[in-house]
Amino acid sequence: MSSQVLAGFHAVTARLRHAPETVKEVYFDESRRDKRMQSLLDSAAAAGLKCHGVRSERLDGLAGGMRHQGVVALAQANVLAVDIDEVLDDLEARNEPALLLILDGITDPHNLGACLRTADAAGVHAVIAPRDRAAGLNATVRRVACGAAETMPYLMVTNLARTMRALKERDVWLVGTDDQAEASIYQVEARRSMAWVLGAEGPGMRRLTRETCDELVNIPMLGSVESLNVSVATAVCLYESVRQRSA
Fold this sequence. Notes:
Layout: E1 3-7, H1 9-18, E2 23-29, H2 35-46, E3 50-54, H3 56-63, E4 71-76, H4 84-93, E5 99-104, H5 109-121, E6 126-130, H6 139-145, E7 154-157, H7 160-169, E8 173-177, E9 194-199, H8 207-212, E10 215-217, H9 230-246
Parallel strand pairs: 2-3, 5-6, 5-9, 6-7, 8-9, 8-10
Antiparallel strand pairs: 1-4, 2-4
């Protein structure tokens, strides 16, 4: 299995919480003895892991340029769902309606990281993006996601429209956001199995992506700005689903 370097408190803590068996060793700044560091070391020790106190220069080398905040872990790559059918089959077995996020054209790693973080917080089951027009899970994405990249399946597909049609065949309702749509997000029935579909700020979704959606809705804009950053729009939409499903 391939190895992976985890840098920073969020990434290491998330892996220790969700998949401690994949962590091999933890390295930490030997000069740090604060409460946050001690809490992480206690979690690592409880998982039976070796923790090595080293100089900051050693951590810099292990992190390979990533911002490490004084802690780096060596781990096996965490195995998440590798395709959408795996995700949906598991949900059907649990009789749980799907909540998915489809991102079309999100190439900024900061935006992707923020979207993954929000998706994790809102209980999304998987995030889907096209291979040819999307940011991958690089170090910046992982840092901004604050651990969500370790728990949220991020499925990059060859043909996004075809994947969306396959979702429709499995009774997943596709709701796209479009500032020209007449209905608003507050008119969506969000308790069914569904996917929110968002495009990049500015160009939005591609034409075929938009046409494949079952429904198009807008986010009400009551002030002078015309649009929201995609990570903010993602949060607004996902938490409408959370609101309805928690009611």
